[in-house]
Amino acid sequence: MANPLKCDLCSKPATVHLTQIVNNKVHKVDLCEACAQAKGVTDPGGFSLADLLLKASLTPDAAPPAPGTRCPRCGYTPVEFKKHGRLGCPACYDAFATLVEPMLANMHSGVTHSGKVPARSLERKSLHDRLTKLELDLTEAIKSERYEDAARTRDEINQVKQAFHPDAP
Amino acid sequence: MPREDSTSLAALLSAPSELTDPGSSKTAIVLMTRIRLARNVVGHSFPGWAKPAQREEILTSCRDAVARLPQMKRCFNFAVADLGELERQILVERHLISRELSGSKGGAGVLISRDQAFSLMVNEEDHLRIQVLRAGLNLKRAWTAINDLDSALEEHLDFAFSPTLGYLTACPTNLGTAMRASAMMHLPALVISNQMEKVVRAVNQLGMVVRGLFGEGSDASGSIFQISNQTTLGEAEEVILKRLGSVLQSIVEHELNARAKLLEADAGKLHDKIGRAYGILQNSHLLTSGEAMNLLSLLRLGIDLGLFPDDQRSLIDRLLIEAQPGHLQHTHRGECDAAQRDVLRAARLRSEFASFPRPEIRPANPGAAA
Ligand SMILES: [Zn+2]
Ligand SMILES: [Zn+2]
């Protein structure tokens, strides 16, 4: 051992020698005891060279987004997305669809969801949308003095509300 | 009393748990199965972009929703800000919170079921990261459990979802099912016979990721690897789980083959490694975390090979967690430096192994792999 290996992180003598494969390339890592400990080498869930390398490769490049686009809901910008690789809120996926959607094919095995659907959430949402529409209809009917329509719409509204809170009186 | 108890880490550590309890099924090769789902509440900024007040609001509404779930009756309920450095580390070592959550700012919390099988992190990268842990290989059982918990939660929370993109997550790499399923595997023979590289490449080609490290000389990670699905969008949960299940099965077969070959080629050499590990665990006075992992890993292999009684496996699995720095310092009742921890660790392992049965090695019959 004429030339002892040095720790990749702090250059003290390395005592832990490890190998990991990232994107089909072999990476050797030499760490001293302290750095191995600090990096959580003993916890396979905690240490991943892949994560370190992926973060380093997420460089802000590609086409610069149109200036001034912001998510109308949360104010997030494409610049921030490029910087962090994260979005600001669920509505950002609509706001930045042209930016995010082309990336998905490289990231995933498909671009369309298959699998579990939050059925109860969606049901509540569709009831909510229905209620909003009926309430508009009602206002409209009253304004134009179509009282029979108004009465019918009011009944429908009560039915939808009933479906919303089945246990309410 | 229930209020006090639910925020006490001491109560959590003394309660029987899915991973450390001798009653749960411990199997050769696969230590545990875990499935994690990411969920976000509609109309709210993701935790990384949310203002402190918005994070608090999410924490409150998630806690209220969880309080109504039968699965989470009498659950532990921690705010990360209320936990000390050591307590956070303990939860990380028990796989109940992520390192990311342990270092997070205000409004982060975790809810943990009594048996520590379910844990729900609030305001990690997503509003909710819900996970289930099962000892051994049990993808189907784990999926049923987490799917039920998720459906129950959905009765009380509106999750952000798009029909084309699936569950909407802070990072686009988690879109779709937002599911990460994994198994923690003990693969010492593949490491000893230098086959991990080959295995990792093959597994990558099947759309799965291997986390963990394999090394020459010192095996500081105890030959423990985590194998999980890489992608979440485009395939249904059951499809992903089925493929992962068959990948895991094939890794198990490769490990068993590698063990058989090692025994065939030079049983004496393998028995010597295991026998020495036994001797060191019984007699050493200084043990680093990495060395302890390596030795415990060899003893686990010894149990699988029939050199030690099968019912000792749960002790090894418990020590793989409890010999880590956070747990050691907690038992010691205070923080101490790495050198002091090595003394404590050796003392703890000496006492645990003082009455551990001697290896039964029959030279004439190398014995079959487990
Ligand atoms: Zn170092
Ligand atoms: Zn947004």
Key phrases:
heterodimer, A: 169 residues, 2 strands, B: 370 residues, alpha+beta, eight-stranded antiparallel sheet, two-stranded antiparallel ribbon, globular, binds zinc ion
What's a concise summary of this model?
Chain A has seven helices and two strands; from the N terminus they run ββααααααα. Chain A has 169 residues and is mainly α.
Can you describe what's shown?
A two-stranded antiparallel ribbon of chain A has the order 1-2. The longest helix of chain A is centred in the C-terminal third of the chain and has 25 residues, at 119-143. Chain A is built from 7 helices and 2 strands, in the order E-E-H-H-H-H-H-H-H. Chain A is mostly helical. Chain A starts with 15 loop residues before the first strand and ends in a 5-residue tail after the last helix. In chain A, helix 6 packs antiparallel against helix 7. Chain A has helices at 33-38, 49-57, 78-84, 92-95, 97-107, 119-143, 147-164; strands at residues 16-22, 25-31. Chain B is α+β, with helices and mostly antiparallel strands and 370 residues long. Chain B has an 8-stranded antiparallel sheet with strand order 2-3-4-5-1-8-10-9, covered by helices on one side. Chain B has a two-stranded antiparallel ribbon with strand order 6-7. In chain B, strand 4 and strand 5 form a beta hairpin. The longest helix of chain B has 47 residues, at 237-283. The N and C termini of chain B lie far apart (46 Å). The chains are: A mainly alpha (169), B alpha+beta (370). Chains A and B meet through strand 1, helix 1, helix 5 and helix 6 of A and helix 6, strand 6, strand 7, helix 8 and strand 9 of B. One zinc ion is lined by residues 71, 73-74, 76, 88-89, 91-92, 95 of chain A.
